[in-house]
Specification:
With about 70 residues, the chain is mainly alpha-helical. The protein contains 3 helices and no strands. About 50% of the residues lie in helices and about 0% in strands.
């Protein structure tokens, strides 16, 4: 190992670190955006109804039924 060896840092890692340094609120904004779409309470009754109403798909979708 050379005397002045420094660990490798990819361009992507450098970019993300620089972005976080320029905009410190980035992670909080990402969490808030995620909460809008994904972090919600699930309606179990509605999910059960959707599962029951699901129609099985034909093996070949474009074939007409006889």
């Amino acid at each position: 190992m050379p005397l002045f060896w420094k660990p490798y840092k990819s361009d992507v890692t450098s970019f993300i670190e620089e972005l976080k340094a320029r905009k410190p609120t980035l992670e909080a904004e990402q969490r808030a955006g995620r909460a809008l779409l994904w972090d919600r309470e699930q309606d179990r009754q509605a999910q059960a109804g959707w599962r029951e109403a699901k129609v099985p798909q034909q093996p070949y979708v474009y074939q007409t039924q006889r």
